[in-house]
Amino acid sequence: MDAGNAWPKDSPWLRDAVEALPRDAFAPDSVWTWDGHAWQRVDRAADPQAWARFVHAGPDDATITEITDGVPSSSLSCTSIVVDMLDSLDLQPAHRVLELGTGTGWNAALIAHRVGPTGHVTSIETDPTLATIAAATLTRAGARVDVRLGDGTLGRPLRTADRHPPGLTTAKDGRSATGWLHGLAQFMNARGTPTHRHVRADRDPDHERVLTRDPRPSSTTPT
Protein backbone atom coordinates (compact mmCIF):
# COMPACT_ATOMS: atom_id res chain seq x y z
CA MET A 1 0.00 0.00 0.00
CA ASP A 2 1.23 3.49 -0.78
CA ALA A 3 0.75 6.58 1.34
CA GLY A 4 -2.93 6.65 0.39
CA ASN A 5 -3.39 3.01 1.42
CA ALA A 6 -3.90 1.91 -2.19
CA TRP A 7 -2.76 -1.51 -3.35
CA PRO A 8 0.42 -1.40 -5.51
CA LYS A 9 -0.47 -1.25 -9.20
CA ASP A 10 2.60 -3.21 -10.22
CA SER A 11 1.94 -6.10 -7.80
CA PRO A 12 -1.74 -7.08 -8.11
CA TRP A 13 -0.90 -10.46 -6.59
CA LEU A 14 -0.45 -8.87 -3.17
CA ARG A 15 -4.13 -8.21 -2.55
CA ASP A 16 -5.00 -11.80 -3.43
CA ALA A 17 -2.25 -13.08 -1.14
CA VAL A 18 -3.34 -10.96 1.83
CA GLU A 19 -6.96 -12.05 1.37
CA ALA A 20 -5.97 -15.71 1.07
CA LEU A 21 -3.67 -15.53 4.11
CA PRO A 22 -5.41 -13.33 6.73
CA ARG A 23 -3.45 -11.97 9.68
CA ASP A 24 -5.57 -13.75 12.28
CA ALA A 25 -4.43 -17.13 10.93
CA PHE A 26 -0.89 -16.23 12.02
CA ALA A 27 -1.58 -14.34 15.25
CA PRO A 28 -0.92 -16.04 18.61
CA ASP A 29 -3.69 -16.33 21.19
CA SER A 30 -2.17 -13.44 23.14
CA VAL A 31 -1.11 -10.08 21.74
CA TRP A 32 0.08 -6.92 23.48
CA THR A 33 -0.97 -3.30 23.62
CA TRP A 34 0.70 -0.24 25.17
CA ASP A 35 -1.54 1.56 27.66
CA GLY A 36 0.71 4.60 27.93
CA HIS A 37 2.78 3.21 30.81
CA ALA A 38 3.22 -0.54 30.28
CA TRP A 39 2.53 -3.38 27.87
CA GLN A 40 -0.75 -5.15 28.56
CA ARG A 41 -1.67 -8.65 27.41
CA VAL A 42 -4.84 -9.13 25.38
CA ASP A 43 -5.98 -12.76 25.38
CA ARG A 44 -8.17 -14.16 22.65
CA ALA A 45 -10.09 -16.40 25.04
CA ALA A 46 -10.76 -13.65 27.57
CA ASP A 47 -11.66 -10.87 25.13
CA PRO A 48 -12.01 -12.10 21.53
CA GLN A 49 -13.31 -8.77 20.26
CA ALA A 50 -10.37 -6.81 21.63
CA TRP A 51 -7.96 -9.45 20.34
CA ALA A 52 -9.46 -9.23 16.85
CA ARG A 53 -9.36 -5.44 16.98
CA PHE A 54 -5.63 -5.42 17.66
CA VAL A 55 -4.87 -8.18 15.15
CA HIS A 56 -6.86 -6.45 12.42
CA ALA A 57 -5.78 -2.94 13.29
CA GLY A 58 -5.43 -0.22 10.67
CA PRO A 59 -3.09 -0.71 7.70
CA ASP A 60 -0.43 1.38 9.43
CA ASP A 61 -0.58 -0.44 12.78
CA ALA A 62 1.58 -3.40 13.80
CA THR A 63 0.35 -6.09 16.20
CA ILE A 64 2.84 -6.84 18.97
CA THR A 65 2.98 -10.61 19.49
CA GLU A 66 5.88 -11.03 21.91
CA ILE A 67 7.46 -9.04 24.73
CA THR A 68 10.99 -9.89 25.90
CA ASP A 69 12.58 -8.14 28.87
CA GLY A 70 9.85 -5.53 28.75
CA VAL A 71 10.23 -4.55 25.08
CA PRO A 72 8.58 -5.84 21.87
CA SER A 73 10.59 -8.61 20.24
CA SER A 74 8.18 -9.95 17.59
CA SER A 75 5.13 -8.68 15.77
CA LEU A 76 2.72 -8.97 12.90
CA SER A 77 4.09 -6.01 10.98
CA CYS A 78 1.63 -3.41 9.74
CA THR A 79 0.03 -4.36 6.45
CA SER A 80 1.14 -1.22 4.63
CA ILE A 81 4.83 -1.87 5.35
CA VAL A 82 4.62 -5.57 4.44
CA VAL A 83 2.83 -4.84 1.18
CA ASP A 84 5.20 -2.00 0.29
CA MET A 85 8.31 -4.06 0.98
CA LEU A 86 7.08 -7.08 -0.98
CA ASP A 87 6.12 -4.84 -3.89
CA SER A 88 9.65 -3.39 -3.87
CA LEU A 89 11.15 -6.88 -3.79
CA ASP A 90 9.62 -7.55 -7.24
CA LEU A 91 8.93 -11.19 -6.45
CA GLN A 92 8.24 -13.52 -9.36
CA PRO A 93 7.10 -17.16 -9.62
CA ALA A 94 9.97 -19.65 -9.15
CA HIS A 95 12.13 -17.19 -7.21
CA ARG A 96 14.28 -18.51 -4.36
CA VAL A 97 13.98 -16.25 -1.32
CA LEU A 98 15.83 -15.99 1.99
CA GLU A 99 13.95 -14.28 4.82
CA LEU A 100 15.65 -13.26 8.06
CA GLY A 101 13.30 -13.41 11.04
CA THR A 102 10.31 -15.70 10.65
CA GLY A 103 8.28 -14.25 13.50
CA THR A 104 4.67 -15.34 13.10
CA GLY A 105 5.30 -16.62 9.57
CA TRP A 106 2.84 -14.26 7.85
CA ASN A 107 5.39 -12.48 5.67
CA ALA A 108 6.97 -15.78 4.65
CA ALA A 109 3.54 -17.15 3.73
CA LEU A 110 2.86 -14.17 1.48
CA ILE A 111 6.22 -14.68 -0.22
CA ALA A 112 5.51 -18.38 -0.72
CA HIS A 113 2.13 -17.52 -2.22
CA ARG A 114 3.90 -15.48 -4.88
CA VAL A 115 6.85 -17.72 -5.76
CA GLY A 116 4.57 -20.74 -6.00
CA PRO A 117 5.40 -24.45 -6.10
CA THR A 118 8.41 -23.94 -8.39
CA GLY A 119 9.96 -21.39 -6.02
CA HIS A 120 11.57 -21.88 -2.64
CA VAL A 121 11.37 -19.85 0.58
CA THR A 122 13.81 -20.31 3.45
CA SER A 123 13.10 -18.37 6.64
CA ILE A 124 15.54 -18.17 9.55
CA GLU A 125 14.37 -17.55 13.12
CA THR A 126 16.62 -17.24 16.17
CA ASP A 127 13.92 -17.96 18.77
CA PRO A 128 13.25 -21.72 19.04
CA THR A 129 9.69 -21.25 20.29
CA LEU A 130 8.80 -18.81 17.52
CA ALA A 131 10.39 -21.06 14.90
CA THR A 132 8.40 -24.09 16.04
CA ILE A 133 5.10 -22.22 16.19
CA ALA A 134 5.65 -20.49 12.86
CA ALA A 135 6.52 -23.75 11.12
CA ALA A 136 3.31 -25.35 12.38
CA THR A 137 1.24 -22.30 11.45
CA LEU A 138 2.70 -22.22 7.94
CA THR A 139 1.94 -25.90 7.48
CA ARG A 140 -1.68 -25.37 8.53
CA ALA A 141 -1.94 -22.48 6.10
CA GLY A 142 -0.59 -24.61 3.26
CA ALA A 143 2.44 -22.36 2.78
CA ARG A 144 5.62 -24.08 1.58
CA VAL A 145 8.32 -22.46 3.72
CA ASP A 146 11.51 -24.06 5.02
CA VAL A 147 11.82 -22.65 8.55
CA ARG A 148 15.31 -22.91 9.97
CA LEU A 149 16.52 -22.18 13.50
CA GLY A 150 19.60 -19.98 13.56
CA ASP A 151 21.13 -16.52 13.47
CA GLY A 152 19.84 -14.75 10.37
CA THR A 153 22.78 -12.33 10.38
CA LEU A 154 24.99 -15.28 9.43
CA GLY A 155 22.92 -16.16 6.37
CA ARG A 156 22.52 -19.68 5.05
CA PRO A 157 24.67 -22.06 2.97
CA LEU A 158 24.61 -21.98 -0.81
CA ARG A 159 21.46 -22.73 -2.82
CA THR A 160 19.27 -20.64 -0.52
CA ALA A 161 19.27 -17.63 -2.86
CA ASP A 162 21.50 -16.98 -5.85
CA ARG A 163 21.51 -13.18 -5.93
CA HIS A 164 20.58 -10.02 -4.06
CA PRO A 165 17.74 -7.87 -5.37
CA PRO A 166 18.94 -5.06 -7.66
CA GLY A 167 20.14 -1.98 -5.85
CA LEU A 168 21.93 1.23 -6.80
CA THR A 169 24.53 1.49 -9.54
CA THR A 170 27.06 4.22 -8.81
CA ALA A 171 28.39 6.31 -11.66
CA LYS A 172 32.11 6.07 -12.42
CA ASP A 173 32.72 9.60 -11.17
CA GLY A 174 31.01 8.74 -7.88
CA ARG A 175 28.77 11.80 -8.12
CA SER A 176 25.46 10.07 -8.87
CA ALA A 177 23.69 6.72 -8.80
CA THR A 178 20.72 5.09 -10.50
CA GLY A 179 18.45 2.25 -9.47
CA TRP A 180 15.71 1.39 -7.03
CA LEU A 181 15.72 3.19 -3.69
CA HIS A 182 13.06 2.20 -1.18
CA GLY A 183 11.69 4.63 1.37
CA LEU A 184 11.96 4.35 5.13
CA ALA A 185 10.75 1.09 6.64
CA GLN A 186 11.61 -0.66 9.88
CA PHE A 187 10.82 -4.07 11.31
CA MET A 188 11.81 -5.55 14.67
CA ASN A 189 15.46 -5.08 15.58
CA ALA A 190 17.68 -8.13 15.47
CA ARG A 191 18.10 -9.83 18.84
CA GLY A 192 20.96 -8.26 20.73
CA THR A 193 20.48 -4.81 19.20
CA PRO A 194 20.87 -2.15 21.92
CA THR A 195 17.57 -0.65 23.05
CA HIS A 196 16.61 2.42 25.05
CA ARG A 197 17.06 0.29 28.17
CA HIS A 198 20.72 -0.19 27.34
CA VAL A 199 21.16 3.48 26.53
CA ARG A 200 19.45 4.66 29.72
CA ALA A 201 20.93 1.87 31.85
CA ASP A 202 17.43 1.10 33.18
CA ARG A 203 17.04 4.56 34.72
CA ASP A 204 13.54 5.90 35.14
CA PRO A 205 12.48 8.71 32.80
CA ASP A 206 13.66 12.15 33.86
CA HIS A 207 10.14 13.48 33.39
CA GLU A 208 6.81 12.78 31.71
CA ARG A 209 4.64 15.16 29.73
CA VAL A 210 1.33 15.01 27.92
CA LEU A 211 1.54 14.33 24.19
CA THR A 212 -0.59 16.97 22.50
CA ARG A 213 0.12 15.97 18.88
CA ASP A 214 -1.93 13.18 17.31
CA PRO A 215 0.61 10.28 17.10
CA ARG A 216 -1.29 8.46 14.34
CA PRO A 217 0.04 8.51 10.76
CA SER A 218 -1.27 11.36 8.62
CA SER A 219 -3.15 8.91 6.39
CA THR A 220 -5.11 6.13 8.07
CA THR A 221 -8.07 5.77 5.73
CA PRO A 222 -8.87 2.03 5.48
CA THR A 223 -9.15 0.33 2.12
Automatic annotation (TrEMBL):
Q: Which GO terms describe its cellular component?
A: cytoplasm
Do you know which InterPro entries this protein is assigned to? PCMT, SAM-dependent_MTases_sf
- GO terms assigned for molecular function: protein-L-isoaspartate (D-aspartate) O-methyltransferase activity
* Family named by the database record: Belongs to the methyltransferase superfamily. L-isoaspartyl/D-aspartyl protein methyltransferase family.
Lineage of origin: Bacteria, Bacillati, Actinomycetota, Actinomycetes, Kitasatosporales
Task: Could you list this entry's UniProt keywords, alphabetically sorted.
Answer: Cytoplasm, Methyltransferase, S-adenosyl-L-methionine, Transferase
What is this protein identified as? Protein-L-isoaspartate O-methyltransferase
Report any one BP term from Gene Ontology: methylation
Q: Where is this region: Disordered?
A: 156-175, 191-223
Q: What is its EC number?
A: 2.1.1.77
Q: What class of enzyme is it?
A: transferase
Entry's Pfam families? Answer: PCMT (PF01135)
Q: Which CDD domains match?
A: AdoMet_MTases (cd02440)
Where is this protein found?
Cytoplasm
Q: In what ranges is there compositional bias, type Basic and acidic residues?
A: 201-216
